[in-house]
Structures are given as C-alpha cells and as structure tokens.
Amino acid sequence: MSTDVRNNCRVISLFGLWFALNVCYNITNKWALEDVREKVIAAASQQNDFEISYLSSSLPITIGCIQFGVGALYACFLWLFRIRPVPHADELTRGITVVKRNCIGLVRMIRSAQLAESFHIAIVSSRERSNNPSPVTLRDTSKIAVYHTFGQLCTIMSLSTNSISFAHVIKAMEPLFSAVASWLVLGQVMNIRVYMSLLPVVFGVALACAGAKEFSWISFWSGMGSNAFFAMRGVVSKTVMEKSASERPSDINDTDVDQRERGHLHGSHTQISPANLFAAVTCVSFLLSIPLALTTEGSILIMLANQSAEKERQDVTETLSYIISSGAFHYINNEVMYVTLSKVHPITLAVGNTAKRVFIILAGIIVFSTPVSVETAVGATIGIGGVFVYSLMKQWYDISDTNNTTQATERNEDDPTTELTHTHIT
What's the angle, vertex CA 396, arms to CA 203 and CA 240, rounded to 5? Predict the structure, then answer.
C-alpha cells in the first residue's frame, strides 16, 4: 500500500472517529439531562413548598461542571505520566517559590517583631516575576477559559430545554458571531462577498426556528449565548496563539516546532500546543464552574442529598455513567479534532465540520424520534449549506489576500525606485 493511500485512510479514519465522538457526546449528554430531570422532578414533587424551573430541573451547570472535571482528570493523567509537558510550569513554580519565601519571611518577621519589614517581604519585585516569561501566560489561559466555560454551559442549557436538532441548528449561526467578533475585537474586515454568504445562514436558521414544533426561547437564547461566547473564545485563542508564535525564540529549529505542536518540547523555550492549551483551559473551566454550580443549583443538590439520606438511595449508576461518558466523549472529541486539523487543509476541515453537524442532527432525530416539520428541514438545510459556502469563501479570500500581499511585497523589494523614494522623503 502506497504512502498516499495510507495517509488518506488515516484521514478518513480520523474524520469517522471525530463524527462518532461528536454524536456519542450529544446523545449521552441528552440522556444525562433527561435522566436527571426525571429524578429531580420526582424528588421535588415530594416537597410541597419546593419550586423548581424547567431549566434548572436538569442541573445543566452541575452536569457541565462534572464534564469539565472528567476532562481535567484526563489532562492531569497526561501531565502526571509526562505524556505532555505541564503548561505554565514556570509560572506555577515561581508562584510556589514566592509564597514559600514570603511565608518563611513572615514567620521570621513575627519572631523578631520586625514589623516594618513586612512590606519588603510581601511585595515581590516585577523583575523577579518576569524572569523567563512564558509565551502563553496563565492569565491568557484564564481569559480563554472564561469564554469556554460560559459557552459550553450555554450549549448544555440549550440542549436541556429542546432537541439536539434544534440546538445544533441554532449553533449553525456561530460563524456570524465569529465574523462580528473578529471585526469588533481584531478590526479584521473580510470581503463583502464573504459577509453576503452569511445571509443564507441567517435565513435558514430563522426558517427552521419558525417551523419548529417545539420552539423554546430559553433554548434559543442559550444557543445564541453559546455562539457569542465561543466566537470570543476563538478570537482570544487566535490572539494568544499568534503571540506565542511571534515570541518564538530564533534558536528553535523546525524539529523543535514540530515537537511543540505535539506538546512534547521541554525546556526554557516551551510553548503550549493547541491541544495542551485546551487541556489547561479545561482545568481552569472546571474550577470556574464549581462556584457557578453551587450558586445556581446548590439548593436542588441539597434537596436531593437530604432525600437520599432520609429514604433509600435511588439507583443513579446509569445517570452517572451518562454524565461521565459524555465528559470523556467531549474531551477526546476535541483531542481528535486537533489531530485532524494538523493532517488536512482548512477547507477540508470546513467540509468535515459541516458534515459533522448534519450527522449530529440526523442522529438526534433518529435516536430521540424528534418530529421535524418541512419548514425546519428546509431551513436547517439552507442554514448548514450556508455555513459550508461561507467557510469555502472565507478560505478562498484569505488565501487570495495573502497572495496579493506577498506579491505586493515582492514588487516593492524589486522596484529600484522604492529606495530612492524613501531616501528623498528622509
């Protein structure tokens, strides 16, 4: 078998695995939400004075928190066994050293009653804090994690209040939000034809929503919120990774860059690969989602805990298996996506991303027997087809703009009058 055939088979296998993991995540996630809702409503019905909303009855924030926790455990496993380097290791080591030094100094200060030196001990100079800066700082990761946390939680909330097909039709609007976010935050203006290609997406989603037999405003606005947060996550991630690439030391060769992309480059020049950055983001998202879950759904969790203590415990093994497996599917799905992205052209990935959403919608309709009207089917087809056309046009004009810029630069370098003009101006 030739090398090209093997590579093509490998790419096809990656796409198949990526589609399967996406479908499994959405189905197990929906099963988990429905199981939890049944148990919570049954428990709340025994409490006469306990009121609960339809959204919170499925505990979407708590389920999202557990899913983040599953991904964080997987990431920690990779770091513990040195399969990947620990991100922000230098920052964490310096932080621990500073805390340790300050604690020792504080104890000595108290013993000797030298209270005047407290300010000198507590304040660490900026010079010490800036030694060996990491191209991607913990602050950058935290910014991405904030948008990732709220984007994923909004997605789960959208799924909890309506069908998988409806939620993913709404999710088809994400390119529109990404275009707006790139314009507002980065000042990136695309060709007018690229913006025009988004009109079928808007029309298709509007038609699908108008024909939906079980329309939900909560699901609609949660899906729109997810689009907005994920668009901002993409913009911030792009800015961070571009900064990481621009700050790459000149003494790193191509072999080191290839190792960095795989997450295996150690040493003072360690940079975070996209997959390892996602692992760090997942860990921070897990920490952020804990207080959110306790604040928004803590009363329901306390009610369930009190009832389980007073009566015989319900069998929650199946529900927990759905939640944990959905968290594993979600994280591994992103791992496979990064591997696939490194193997194919962005246009190929755009085609695959469109096909993936079609597979998810069809799987949701089949598994959950979701009724679909003609308007919804036509609108979903137009919307998803519009996303595909937008992706192709965006890639086309990005390549064209890059080639035009390169040709203009070469003409300026070859033009002998350029140097004379600059000399005259000077």
Answer: 90
**Residue 322: burial class (beta carbons within 10 Å; 0-12, 13-18, 19+):** buried
Measured distance CA(2)–CA(87) in Å, rounded: 38
Which residue type is seen at 150?
F
pTM: 0.77
Using an 8 Å Cβ cutoff, are 71 and 331 in contact?
A: yes
Instruction: Output 5-8 pairs: Cβ under 8 A, ≥24 positions apart.
Output: 7/343
pLDDT at 343 over 50: yes
Closest CA to 157 of 225, 242, 253: 225
Give the whole-angstrom CA distance, residue 294 versus residue 276. 28
Q: Of 185, 295, 277, nearest to 240 (Cα)?
A: 277
Rounded distance, CA 104 to CA 125, Å? 17
Give the integer Cα–Cα distance in Å for 141 and 274: 11
Q: What angle do CA 357, 360, 23 make, to 5 degrees?
A: 120
One-letter identity of residue 358: V
Contact 174, 231 (CB under 8 A): yes
Would you give the DSSP letter of residue 184? I
Report the C-alpha gap between 267 and 76 in whole angstroms.
Answer: 19
- Residue with more model confidence, 139 or 295: 295
Mean pLDDT of 260-287: 69
- The pLDDT value recorded for residue 404 is 67
pLDDT digits (tens, 9 = 90+) for 365-397: 899 888 888 888 898 889 888 888 888 888 787
Q: Are 145 and 201 in contact (CB under 8 A)?
A: no
CB 219 within 8 Å of CB 170:
yes
Rounded Cα gap, residues 63 and 33, in angstroms: 8
Torsion sign, CA atoms 30, 33, 35, 37: negative
Residue 85 per-residue DSSP state: P
d(CA 308, CA 299): 14
Q: Is 113 left (phi over 0), alpha (psi -120 to 50) or beta?
A: left
| Widest Cα–Cα separation across the chain | 90
The answer to whether 380 and 166 have CB atoms below 8 angstroms apart is no
For residue 19, count other CB atoms closer than 10 A to its CB: 20
Q: Which helix (H) or strand (E) is 360 found in, with range?
A: helix 346-368
pLDDT band at 350 (very low <50, low <70, confident <90, very high): low
Q: Which of 100-109, 264-273, 360-369, 404-413 shows the lowest mean pLDDT across its residues? A: 264-273
